[in-house]
Amino acid sequence: MADFPQIRAAWQRRRAVVREQRLDAWRLVHGAADGMEGLSVDDYRGRYLITVEAEAWLEDRTGLEAALAEVQEELRPAFAPQFFWIANLPGHRAVLPAAEPERFEVVEDGARFEVHLGEGPHTGIFLDQRENRRELRKIAKGRRCLNLFCHTGAFTVAALQGGAAETVSVDLSKNYLAWLERNLELNELEDKPHRVVATDAFVYLKKARRRREAFDLILLDPPTFGRGKDGAFSAVRDYGRLLSDCAELLSPQGRILTCLNTRKIRANEFRSLLKDGLKPWGRKILKPGAAPPDFAEAPGAEPPLKAFWCG
What we know:
Number of strands: 16
Largest sheet: 7 strands, mixed
Number of domains: 2
Low-confidence stretches: none
Strand order of the largest sheet: 10-9-8-11-14-16-15
Strand content: 25-35%
Structural class: alpha/beta
CATH topology of the largest domain: Rossmann fold
Order of helices and strands: HEEEHEEEEHEHEHEHEEEHEHEE
CATH superfamily of the largest domain: Vaccinia Virus protein VP39
């Protein structure tokens, strides 16, 4: 059984942040940044989601779990760790046999979120967007917010907790929208002014433009690929059109959080795409979105998630 000193070192680098921020869900191992290229490990209250992008990490699953258990012993000595494995290999993406699937809650900055482990790669909350949720909560008061591709509504929860005047959450998946509603109930926000719309984002934007709607905050974080009313959706191909449609709906002092999660486009390319798309509307990039410290990249590496606040 192999020893994994990199895991202990990764925990040492994150210990202070995890304790100071009282994080329930966070990234313990972030690939090459922690000397473990092709491996990521996320901690959800003692349940570890282990995602492998290199088969070598599957050769000693027992040893890797034992090393994680040492961290668990320091974090939560009374709770036995559980391990969930995802293989994200070329031509093969699957949930590997491990712990029984589990559904439970995690808390982030006072907000409660339902998460699912053991059912697939999407747990219900994107941990790398933590700092952007914090920023949204700070600026949401009194503003009308549109959350496109809203997934399970973490941005919607943050906006309403920040005092948004209204939120509109759009997603084609009724399962995700039902999950969003449960998150609102967990946070006692179900009676706040919000609407959920089960439709294609482009369809919603077209109708909103016809109604001459305006939003003060727009969250634009599409999946890399998807299926819509008009066929296949590709964030790389279709982002410019999405951005233009959103800019048309933005109020004079409004902001858009623009996100793209793919390694196929570099940050400077995405920045150029945004500049070109925003210029006809008299808008510009205001600042980059902040990455949580547990997602810091190796020197010279670019994160898959690119995020910019624009307005």
